[in-house]
Write a structure and sequence with these properties.
27% strand; binds ligand EPZ; alpha/beta; 419 residues; 14 helices; four-stranded mixed β-sheet
């Protein structure tokens, strides 16, 4: 397994591009199941999770081929299986959103339940109850969700929490259901909106994506389409923190500036200079003149949970006490334990972490536990004295395209080595 070596202390400078959004790409790839015609997706990031999604779809009979560095053509002319196996879903829980489109297309689906993961239990009860409301007969057997429905029928559905995955799964099941579906307390994330745009380009009738209530008018069938995936706001935010934590001056290109309001507000509150341009974000200042902040993660448009770990690394460099509260997942502070090994002063009380910042971090051997925690350790390494060694970087490869190359292009002393 590879590891990353970082010798900190360099102020990052220069320009860096953001790749396509992982969390928009994954449901959009699954939506290819909803038509027997080819679809072409552009701005697709080269990530492990994308490869996993393509392998899952291939197992269902979906043909796919890269038609460009970041462009894929998929065709689900024939669906030859109804099963998403445990091995696949276990490695990437986002696979679970294959349930809705597979059921809508073929009338049958047997999808492994994803089980828990490092950051929490992550149940799928809202996915199941929503799709059951659309008329599916669903039972749980041997760790699999087994669903049947000759033709789904529209329904009025309330989500107890605005779950991103449940919203996406239910949307993809509802677009060819008979009649109207009203999804209330829906997730508003930009990735949900991008999926809805793609479905609409295939002929679906969807209204209100991005608001709490999404209306769907079922259609008989969907046709092929082309779509360019939105930029990855979490990568953009992660790169902004990299500039701030090193006190550098970085311009981030292809940035979805309008989707980062909560993040930019927090960075500015910390004293980071953030200038938004047309698709670009210039981030400068930052360390060492950082101010402490209070931060709560919330569903979009609140502060994204996927940037919580990165911000925790940043506030360790802000003299004073910062308070971070994680309201989305119940166990998303694993990175704190590793940051403490680098000298960070963090006290955790349930969903809240209290960070006494302003101390230099020291490089140390640390271990990545999940995708965003590994980014937090990279960021800490960029600011730390001497060398930080991060093992299990395969977590990074799931969600960041060529991150070491991007950071090295900004002057970071970062090297990827075989362990
Ligand atoms: C998506 O996960 C993202 N993944 C996550 O990003 C992100 O952290 C999360 O949304 C929240 O924004 C993808 O889009 C592939 P949820 P998802 O369903 O859909 C509870 C990353 O790093 N819940 O919105 O799984 C759940 O336990 C990943 O890129 C239920 O209770 O998140 C959690 O507490 C990590 N029942 C909350 O809702 C359900 O049926 C939010 O989960 C579903 C969810």
């Amino acid at each position: 397994m590879d590891k990353m070596l970082i010798r900190g202390g360099v102020k990052l400078t220069g320009e860096v591009p953001v790749s396509g959004s992982k969390n928009a790409t994954l449901p959009i790839l699954m939506a290819a199941l909803l038509t027997d015609e080819p679809v072409r997706i552009r701005n697709v990031p080269r990530l492990r999770d994308v490869a996993t999604a393509l392998a899952l779809l291939n197992g269902l009979g979906v043909e796919s081929r890269w038609t460009g560095e970041h462009e894929i053509e998929l065709c689900a002319a024939r669906v030859t299986s109804h099963e998403a196996p445990y091995e696949m879903v276990k490695t990437m829980r986002a696979s679970f959103v294959v349930l809705g489109p597979l059921l809508a297309r073929t009338g049958r689906a047997r999808v492994s339940t994803p089980g828990g993961c490092a950051i929490g239990a992550r149940p799928v009860n809202l996915h199941i109850s929503g799709i059951r409301s659309l008329g599916a007969r669903i039972q749980l057997r041997n760790g699999y969700v087994e669903a049947h429905a000759e033709r789904l029928s529209g329904a009025r559905i309330w989500l107890d929490t605005p779950s991103v995955g449940a919203t996406e799964n239910i949307l993809m099941a509802a677009v060819t259901a008979r009649g109207q579906t009203q999804l209330e307390n829906a997730a508003r994330e930009p990735e949900v909106q991008d999926l809805a745009r793609f479905l609409a380009s295939m002929g679906a009738k969807i209204y209100g994506a991005g608001s709490h209530v999404i209306e769907v008018e079922g259609v008989e069938r969907l046709h092929g389409a082309e779509h360019a995936v939105i930029a990855d706001r979490i990568e953009a935010g992660s790169l902004a923190v990299a500039a701030a934590i090193t006190g550098g001056d970085v311009t981030i290109r292809n940035t979805p500036v309008g989707q980062l309001d909560a993040v930019l507000a927090k960075l500015r509150e910390m004293g980071v200079a953030v200038t938004a341009g047309d698709g670009t974000l210039r981030v400068s200042g930052g360390a060492p003149a950082l101010r402490p902040v209070e931060l709560r993660t919330l569903p979009y448009p609140g502060f994204p949970t996927d940037l919580q770990a990165q911000m925790m690394a940043l506030v360790t460099q802000a003299a004073g006490t910062s308070v971070i509260t994680e309201t989305i997942f119940e166990n998303r502070f694993m990175h704190a334990l590793e940051l403490m090994r680098m000298g960070a002063d963090i006290v955790m009380k349930g969903p809240t972490a209290i960070v006494h910042g302003g101390t230099r971090l020291q490089g140390a051997p640390v271990m990545a536990t999940d995708l965003r925690a590994s980014m937090s350790l990279i960021l800490a390494g960029l600011a730390a004295e001497n060398v930080t060694e991060i093992s299990r970087v395969y977590h990074l490869d799931r969600g960041y395209e060529a991150l070491d190359k991007k950071l090295a292009s900004l002057g970071a002393r970062i090297e990827r080595v075989n362990e």
